[in-house]
């Protein structure tokens, strides 16, 4: 069987296909006539929605998120978006596929991102901040996990390497802003590099991206704060006020209590970091949604449930 990737689906419009996909999202929903299963079908080239309309309740028990399925279905267009109407499924055993074929990864060069990341550390002048960052990220085992981690489950940078890509983008924008406004540049850059560090522990990304138990119960903001505090405690005479300001950057970067921020931004650096973080997350989130539109000539993206809107493509 010749695998048809997500990126190739537009070449098979209104045709029946048989191919293998990783199930990254799955939900049993109640329709107007009967239950159906809504799927997110993924491989390393992207993801596409799928629907199982027939015998949904019985099939729902046959597989889980993180399984690889061989599906037989028809590629269709619905509201100018490519989808797959799934008619038959077969769950594959691990020895029948290579998981690397199904895990979406950053399109950026990981080595170049890493070079940029460590260059930001090298340019920090404040000695305790620099030592803290080196202590954390020169740990090769930890940095490997950091460089592989996603930045989210569904919205932005939700792929392997997404956290590193997002972090370098945040630090790059903060570096630029530091030339425009009177901010504590070293503190701001350190906060940019550390703000999402808790996501290394928040997500389980060995197969599909999902929350770890710790991530769901605690969340990346408290986890990141705890991790950084533990690393600070190993540095003699780390300035107390600097520790407080750095913690505040981590604890407030979501900006609003309604968005799971532990604190509201109450310093200039925290205010800048929050807006830069949101800028990159929203921009890449929209790019990912519009990038999923595979049908030529489509006028609108699929509906963005998080922000309650469509995006115009023309």
Summarize the structure.
With about 325 residues, this protein is an alpha+beta fold. It has eleven helices and seven strands.
Strand-helix topology:
Blueprint: E1 16-30, E2 35-43, E3 46-52, H1 56-60, E4 68-78, E5 81-91, H2 110-122, H3 127-137, H4 140-148, H5 162-177, H6 185-194, H7 199-202, E6 203-204, E7 210-211, H8 213-217, H9 220-232, H10 240-252, H11 268-291
Parallel strand pairs: 3-5
Antiparallel strand pairs: 1-2, 1-4, 2-3, 4-5, 6-7
Helix pairs in contact: 2-5, 5-6, 5-11, 6-10, 6-11, 9-10, 10-11
The topology string of helices and strands comes to EEEHEEHHHHHHEEHHHH
Q: Report the CATH architecture of the largest domain.
A: Orthogonal Bundle
Tally of strands: 7
Tally of domains:
2
Fraction of helical residues: 25-40%
The total count of helices amounts to 11
Structural class: alpha+beta
The overall average pLDDT, rounded, is: 92
CATH class of the largest domain: Mainly Alpha
Largest sheet: 5 strands, mixed, barrel
Strand content: 15-25%
Enumerate the strands of the largest sheet in spatial order, edge to edge or round the barrel: 1-2-3-5-4
- What name does the CATH topology of the largest domain carry? Hypothetical protein af1432
Overall morphology: elongated
Low-confidence stretches: none
Head-to-tail CA distance between termini: 37 Å
* Rounded radius of gyration (Å): 22 Å
For this entry, give a set of tags.
2 domains, 18% strand, alpha+beta, OB fold (Dihydrolipoamide Acetyltransferase, E2P), two-stranded antiparallel sheet, single chain
């Amino acid at each position: 069987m010749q695998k048809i990737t997500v990126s190739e689906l537009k070449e098979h419009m209104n045709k029946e296909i048989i191919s293998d996909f990783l199930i990254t999202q799955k939900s049993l929903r109640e329709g107007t006539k009967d239950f159906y299963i809504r799927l997110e079908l993924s491989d390393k080239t992207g993801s596409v929605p799928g629907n199982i309309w027939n015998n949904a309740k019985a099939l729902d028990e046959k597989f889980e998120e993180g399984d690889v399925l061989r599906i037989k279905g028809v590629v269709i267009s619905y509201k100018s978006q490519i989808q797959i109407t799934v008619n038959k499924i077969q769950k594959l055993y691990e020895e029948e596929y290579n998981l690397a074929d199904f895990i979406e990864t950053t399109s950026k060069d990981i080595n170049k991102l890493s070079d940029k990341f460590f260059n930001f550390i090298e340019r920090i002048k404040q000695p305790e901040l620099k030592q803290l960052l080196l202590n954390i990220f020169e740990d090769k085992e930890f940095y490997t996990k950091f460089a592989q981690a996603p930045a989210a489950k569904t919205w932005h940078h939700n792929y392997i390497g997404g956290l590193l890509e997002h972090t370098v983008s945040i630090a790059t924008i903060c570096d630029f802003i530091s030339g425009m406004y009177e901010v504590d540049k070293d503190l701001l850059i350190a906060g940019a590099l550390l703000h999402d560090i808790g996501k290394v522990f928040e997500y389980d990304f060995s197969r599909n991206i999902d929350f770890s138990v710790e991530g769901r119960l605690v969340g990346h903001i408290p986890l990141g704060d705890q991790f950084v505090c533990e690393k600070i405690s190993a540095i003699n005479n780390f300035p107390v006020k600097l520790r407080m300001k750095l913690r505040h950057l981590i604890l407030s970067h979501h900006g609003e209590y309604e968005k799971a921020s532990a604190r509201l931004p109450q310093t200039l650096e925290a205010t800048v970091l929050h807006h830069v973080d949101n800028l990159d997350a929203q921009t890449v989130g929209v790019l990912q949604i519009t990038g999923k539109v595979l049908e030529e000539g489509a006028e609108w993206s699929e509906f963005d449930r998080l922000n309650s809107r469509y995006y115009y493509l023309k």
